[in-house]
Amino acid sequence: MSAPHCSPPPADLPPDDVFREIFLRLLPDPSFLLAASLVCRRWRRLICSPAFLHRFRAFHRTPPVLGFFQNLWTLSCPTGRRIRFVPTAGPATRISPPPGIQDWVLDCCHGHVLLYSYSDRELLVWDPMTGDTHYVGAPPDLVGEDVAAALVCAADHVDHTDCHSSPFQIIFLDCKDDQYWLSACVYSSGTEVWGSWTAITTPSLVSSESSALVGNSVYWKINFAEEDSNHILEFELHNQRSGLIELPEGVRENYMSDIHIMPAEDGCIGFAGVSYYSIHFWSRRIDSEGVAGWALLRIIDMDKLSLSGVPAGDMFFW
């Protein structure tokens, strides 16, 4: 008679530190961490730990881009405006704004989205990852219908990889198209009040496209509607002062009046412009004598690249 079959004792599982090191090296797409957290309670406890999530963000440094928000004009909504999220990290990524304010996205920065309701004149700071919402009434004495705004983290972070619970500021621009008179006002989540208006005359309306934050200043593009509108707007956060910066000569003609303000590769404010089949990257630098000027940093020839089998140059040309 054969001896009864005995199951071998269960193998000892690795300690928590080993699992943490493995999870730390997963791809930064949130879907990988989500899948791992559903395996068992132990893995979920390790992954959801605030200490581990902080290490994970620091290890991967630059957070992944899950997609982008697109403002659309439509006849299907009473306001004529609609927001759509376009995923880039995979078809499973779906992010929808909370109900209520769904008019327009004014800015996305440091893990938060800034939305604006034209009918209610109300702002919403929304964290898509945590679902947290912070409603803010528009600044008092708002006049214009053409508005722009920027959302910045007010915490003293080095790389802004963990701003979910940090205080923030909203820089709100009220643009009056009859005289191109622009007023700026700053909201602080710490005090929950708006500051005083500061005004400046601009050669044209400020574009409502997303702003660019570089150092202590926020920048917007000015629409190329007038002959002398070859400028960008700078707003200094510390002294809350606005100013105009002239762009290089020929920007209107060379880039068909279409540029995108962005931080440059060297850490200065810059812009990208499309010229036929190439993208030109510019940066505003200050020389040893303290004189500021624009420099062409790099040119990418899109005619030599392809996107999904289609020549990228053809897309840019048309």
Automatic annotation (TrEMBL):
Span of the signal peptide: none
InterPro entries for the chain: AT5G49610-like_b-prop (IPR056594), F-box-like_dom_sf (IPR036047), F-box_dom (IPR001810)
Domain of life per record: Eukaryota
Domain F-box: 14-56
PANTHER family: F-BOX DOMAIN-CONTAINING PROTEIN, OS07G0120400 PROTEIN
Name assigned to this protein: F-box domain-containing protein
Organism the protein comes from: Panicum hallii var. hallii
